[in-house]
Write a structure and sequence with these properties.
The complex is a heterodimer of chains A (about 300) and B (about 450). Chain A has about 300 residues and is of the alpha+beta class. Chain A is about 25% helix and about 15% strand. With about 450 residues, chain B is mainly α. The chains are: A alpha+beta (about 300), B mainly alpha (about 450).
């Protein structure tokens, strides 16, 4: 990455993404208007509305409170955003930290894999590689098209969500999704009581409900707070980049880069482009790999010959 | 054709022969068995509502199972109503008139159970009303709800309207009716006086419904095929699916009518009304429909097999030489090829061989729908190297089997009850035909 990326990197680390993802606007204006707050002496750099870096005392930064987004509110996207993800296949060595973080974040039982790390092999001569795969939040989502009750929907910020209080459990969306991204609660979900009693929000996908469909939700509850989805931050190899297409910026937690440059320079592509689903998740090809491919016990023993 | 069949010459004989009769010993036993299996099915369904669809063998990859294939089967069967009472009627095939009521009774029972079965498949049947209050017109499921409801109502009307004069006739002899029958017939026959103006309205209504039901019938099964064809799945991603489904439906529907008319003819001694000619003609019809279905099968399997596209290879191999090969070839040969060969010969179209062939067609058709729905889902478009193998080897559980058997018995129970309450052969039409014949002779 070039110099400018490195500059941005330091700012991102300090501001914990608050500036990038949730509207630096309110943080900055609040800071300038307030006189009562005691300054801490430590300053952080933030990106202003005009795209300039400004220095603000840490005391002015307020944690964004957890707000409950109702199923009705969840149908509107976060204004001005177009969320996007880039997955660098050259960096993935199947550590599955992303999978574990996702499972923990959403209280998923082991059979509900919203994030799968698939073993891919494009042809017999090509070296296999690991591909983290989740809901691609397609711009032409086949799942949304077939839903008879509008229980799964596409938002203005690009995210495809499910309202499990409306879902009738017909599973047509699961059949329609070519990426098998969706899971179903076949029986009563086994979750801690305090989770089961949480008020339901499609943005957290919690609590899950028997007889309904669920899937990766791109963690809009996290992005509202200016945080990255846990799969992104859990990855020690920086495989996942998450960000906003409108800002043309994505971050893997340590590096923030220009989305358009990244995709252009590294020949970013989308899985099964020919289906016309227009995924919002891009892949960087597994070339110049950081690690040699190592098969794991699980895939060695399972379904030999089913790779394609 | 050598027959010992008589053509009834007297109005009273006709009414005596065709009036609904109480069940005999075998009839009662039959009803008991059907009620028993329906209740067992209901018992397991209650378990399913309590515990969730987890009691089935369906899992995230094999996300549709025999409930969906059974649904497709019921929708297929129901098409016979439009075949006999609309297509044959409009093409002035008078010979089929005595079969119209049998066909409509089967159609009504099948379409009611198609609706029930699809609700059984829902993860949240308690939210069924969402399909209406949150209906989205983009979804093929919404189209299916609309056409199936329409088809149910037209079928009910096509069953009911021709019954009106019959019920009025039966009501003229109250001494032969029990009290509930008298009341029911009186209420349903709506003061029918057999006046020319009434007949005119009735015949016009039936003709209009017969025309309307044809596109709706094509609609229900085409839309049902689109539940599959609108996806990217191997084996389903086909532009041939609509006609393939519709042709298969007419074939199994015709076979169902043949089986029903054989049973009713024997059980109610209707040899004078359902003649060998009817078996012969229905046999010919079944050959024709089977040949059309064969044609669509060739299109459906040969063309993808010729191309062997990566996404289709595993699926086709599994059908032709793999896990499902035995069932696949049994269904294709016993449920389609053998019927065509046997029914080409006149002797094959005599009642007993025709009955056997029809049962083969019906059983084959049920398993054919299994082969259409289930194997495709075992081959998702993504690699399956991390998937629990049991998710890809769907085989129904005991509750699934019993619930499915319960629905099949439930549909038979509806047909049985309709036959108990209403005349199987249209009485007034039979009388009219007799009068027409006698006038001709004079």
């Amino acid at each position: 990455m070039d110099k400018s990326d490195n500059n941005r990197r330091s700012f991102i680390k300090k501001a914990g993404l608050a500036g990038l993802l949730t509207g630096s606007t309110w943080v900055a204006s609040d800071a300038f208007q307030s006189n009562q707050i005691e300054k801490s002496g430590k300053t952080v750099q933030l990106l202003s509305q005009d795209g300039e870096l400004v220095e603000v005392d840490e005391a002015f930064l307020k944690p964004i409170p957890d707000i409950h987004i109702s199923p009705e509110e969840a149908r509107e996207g976060i204004e001005g955003r177009k969320f996007v993800m880039v997955i660098d296949l050259a960096q993935c060595k199947n550590l599955r930290k992303c999978h574990d973080a996702c499972e923990k974040m959403h209280y998923l039982s082991p059979e509900k894999e919203w994030l799968k790390v698939l073993k891919m092999q494009d042809n017999e001569l090509a070296e296999p590689y690991w591909q983290p795969t989740m809901c691609f939040h397609c711009d032409q989502p086949p799942c949304v098209k077939v839903c008879p009750v509008d229980a799964t929907f596409k938002r203005s910020d690009g995210i495809v969500l499910i309202d499990n209080e409306r879902c009738i459990g017909c599973r047509f969306c699961m059949v329609a999704c070519p990426y098998s991204a969706r899971t179903f609660d076949w029986s009563e979900p086994q979750i801690p009581l305090e989770i089961a009693e949480m008020p339901y929000s499609p943005e957290t996908s919690c609590p899950p409900k028997k007889g309904t469909v669920s899937k990766c939700d791109f963690c809009p509850d996290k992005t509202r707070k200016g945080e990255l989805p846990p799969c992104v931050t859990a990855c020690p190899n920086g495989v996942f980049y998450f960000g906003d297409e409108n800002e043309d910026a994505v971050s893997n937690g340590s590096v923030t880069v220009k989305l358009s440059t990244l995709l252009a320079d590294r020949a970013g592509y989308r899985y099964m482009e020919d289906l016309g689903t227009k995924p919002r998740v891009y892949y960087l090809p597994p070339v110049n790999r950081a690690f040699p491919f190592e098969d794991d016990e699980y895939t060695r023993t399972q379904n030999e010959g089913h790779d394609h | 054709m050598i027959t010992n069949e008589h053509i009834p010459q007297n109005v009273n004989t006709i009414i005596n022969d065709l009036e609904p009769r109480a069940f005999g010993r075998i009839g009662k036993l039959w009803v008991a068995v059907l009620v028993g299996f329906s209740l067992i099915g209901l018992f397991f369904y209650i378990q399913q509502v309590r515990q969730g669809l987890g009691i089935t063998a369906m899992r995230d990859y094999s996300t549709w199972g025999i409930y969906v294939s059974n649904f497709v089967f019921f929708v297929a069967i129901s098409l016979v109503g439009s075949l006999i009472s609309a297509i044959l009627k409009l093409s002035k095939a008078k010979w089929a008139d005595p079969l119209t009521r049998i066909a409509e009774m089967i159609a009504v029972a099948a379409i009611i159970f198609a609706a029930i079965v699809i609700i059984i498949d829902m993860g949240r049947p308690d939210r069924f009303y969402n399909v209406i209050i949150h209906a989205r017109i983009q979804s093929p499921i919404t189209w299916d709800v609309i056409v199936i409801t329409t088809y149910l109502f037209i079928s009910l009307l096509l069953l009911y309207l021709p019954l009106i004069p019959d019920l009025a006739i039966l009501r003229k002899r109250p001494e032969r009716l029990s009290k509930w029958q008298n009341n029911l017939y009186g209420w349903l026959s709506m003061n029918w006086k057999d006046l020319p103006v009434q007949k005119n309205i009735l015949n016009k209504s039936i003709s209009i419904l017969a025309v309307i039901i044809i596109p709706v019938a094509f609609g229900i099964h085409t839309v049902t095929s689109w539940l599959f064809a609108t996806t990217f799945r191997p084996g389903w991603d086909s532009t041939n699916f609509g006609p393939y489904f519709v042709s298969g439906a007419f074939m199994v529907g015709a076979a169902t009518v043949i089986a029903a008319m054989y049973v009713f003819r024997k059980a109610y001694k209707l040899e004078n009304y359902i003649h060998l000619k009817h078996f012969d003609y229905m046999g010919r019809l079944l050959v024709l429909l089977s040949l059309i279905y064969l044609y669509f099968n060739i299109n459906e399997y040969f063309i993808p097999a010729y191309k062997m596209k990566t996404s289709e290879v595993e699926h086709l191999k599994e059908l032709f030489i793999g896990r499902h090969a035995q069932l696949f070839w049994a269904v294709q040969i016993l449920g389609m090829i053998v019927p065509i060969v046997v029914l080409i010969f006149k002797r094959g179209r005599r009642p007993l061989p025709l009955l056997v062939i029809s049962i083969m067609v019906i059983v084959g058709a049920w398993f054919k729908r299994f082969l259409i729905v289930v194997p495709s889902l075992a081959h998702p478009l993504i690699p399956t190297n991390r998937v629990d193998p049991t998710w890809l080897n769907y085989f129904p559980t005991i509750p699934e089997w019993f619930i499915t058997i319960g629905t099949l018995c439930g549909a038979l129970l509806i047909i049985t009850m309709l036959v108990r309450v209403f005349p199987i052969i249209p009485i007034s039409e039979t009388i009219e035909e007799m009068n027409a014949r006698q006038n001709k002779k004079l």
